[in-house]
């Protein structure tokens, strides 16, 4: 009985296993919150490298400028940068 249950689980795992989805980014616009550092920055840089128009959003304008410059240097894409605290909609402002 246990071996039949194990066989069923094995079959189920093969049939229902998640498949990797690849969404083409070329020509699309990608908005990345937390895009000035860490995972957000890596995602923004990768999206730009794949041909997306990129906007990064973060709280610190100085780090945003550095991230925007790094994306431009690494990929040739001019990323838009917006300094904002997503917790407070009144504090949104564009980076010069």
UniProtKB/TrEMBL annotation:
The keyword Signal applies. Coiled coil: none annotated. Keywords: Signal. InterPro entries: NAD(P)-bd_dom_sf (IPR036291), SDR_fam (IPR002347). GO terms for biological process: 3-keto-sphinganine metabolic process; sphingolipid biosynthetic process. One of its GO terms (molecular function) is 3-dehydrosphinganine reductase activity. GO terms for cellular component: endoplasmic reticulum membrane. It comes from the Eukaryota. Residues 1-18 form the signal peptide. This is SDR family NAD(P)-dependent oxidoreductase. It comes from Ensete ventricosum (Abyssinian banana).
């Amino acid at each position: 009985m246990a071996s039949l249950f194990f066989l069923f689980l094995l079959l189920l795992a093969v049939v229902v296993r998640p498949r990797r989805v690849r969404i083409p980014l070329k020509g699309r616009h990608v908005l990345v919150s937390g895009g000035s550092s860490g995972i957000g920055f890596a995602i923004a840089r990768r999206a730009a490298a794949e041909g997306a128009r990129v906007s990064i959003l973060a709280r610190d304008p100085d780090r945003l400028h550095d991230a925007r410059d790094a994306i431009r240097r690494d990929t040739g894409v001019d990323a838009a940068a917006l300094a904002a605290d997503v917790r407070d909609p009144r504090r949104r402002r564009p980076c010069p």
